[in-house]
Amino acid sequence: MALNQSRDVFLELPTFSRFFNLFSKRMEKSILRTLEYEKLSHLEIDKRILDFGGGENSKYNQIKNKWIKKDSDYIFHSANIDENMNPTFMIDINGRIPCDDSAYNHVISLNTFEHIYDVSKCLIEINRILSPNGKLIFTVPFIYQVHGHPNDYSRFTPNHWQELLRHHGFCDIKIEALNWGPFSTAASISGCPGPFRAFRMKISLLLDVLYFACKYRGQRYISAQQDAPVCSAPLGYFITASKLS
Q1: Other beta carbons within 10 Å of 164
Q2: Do 177 and 194 meet the contact criterion of CB atoms below 8 Å apart?
Q3: Given this model, what pLDDT does residue 133 score?
Q4: What's the CA gap between 130 and 104, in Å, rounded?
Q5: Are 184 and 31 in contact (CB under 8 A)?
Q6: What is d(CA 79, CA 88) in angstroms, rounded to the nearest whole number?
Q7: DSSP state, 14?
């Protein structure tokens, strides 16, 4: 997949095939969470993996094996400040994870950084535990309801993430807008109140498919600056970055 890396953000356009794969059955997860899991299922990560902000009691613990490269050897650990999540490592009061430098090939983090006041401190620690050329993979919400756990601090733009990650020793930064389209975003943010909510939500998802099919005929991916209308109001972002060797 060739993408113009001079742009800030890229977007996979909604299609009827993606709709039937992701949303045709009962929607038990939010649109944002569904799009996150779709991207994670294409990762094929392996070797030593740390889930920053996860644990054995995380909502996605039962499906994490779908993100692993098939027939590969791997070790999957987790780190958290919440002992109720049953993580491998408890993060101490100074934000340190009790493991060696360069211990992991991949660090993933799902919807965690918005709950952390000083994200820079976390990125320093994640950089420490990643091996040279190791990869950080994370998702964060953007146009999404405030959801404290116990607190909710930030919604950063792609420009902010680019600068922050570069400052803390990361390169090859790629940012994807997690968005289906304007109709479903409006429904998701409003909560789609009233009767027949599930039906109306699916109608909004299908309207987005039709909208993009007319506007971008035959295209699967587009790339644009962060303030371009098509990318300026996503539900969230899926971000990957590599540690400098």
Answers
A1: 17
A2: no
A3: 92
A4: 5
A5: yes
A6: 6
A7: P
Q: What would you measure as the largest C-alpha separation in the chain, in angstroms? A: 54
Residues in the chain: 245
Instruction: State pLDDT tens for residues 174-189.
Output: 999 999 999 999 999 8
First and final C-alpha spacing in the chain: 25
pLDDT-based confidence at residue 2 (cuts at 50, 70, 90): very low
Q: How far apart are CA 139 and CA 156, in angstroms?
A: 12
C-alpha torsion angle, residues 149, 152, 158, 164 (rounded to 10): -90
Q: Is the peptide bond before 98 cis (omega within 30 degrees of 0)?
A: no
pLDDT score for 7: 60
Helix (H, G, I), strand (E, B) or coil at 220: coil
Q: What DSSP character marks residue 12?
A: E
pLDDT (average), residues 117-131: 96
The H or E element spanning position 222 is strand 221-224
Tokens of 126: 């994640």
- In the block, which residue shows the tokens 């109001």? 233
* Cα–Cα distance for residue pair 184/192, rounded to 1 Å: 9
pLDDT at position 157 over 90: yes
Across the range 83-99, mean pLDDT stands at 94
DSSP conformation class of 30: -
Return the ∠ at Cα 103 (arms to 176 and 75), rounded to 5°. Answer: 75
pTM of this prediction? 0.93
Segment 16-60, tens digit of pLDDT: 999 999 998 888 889 999 999 999 999 889 999 999 999 999 989
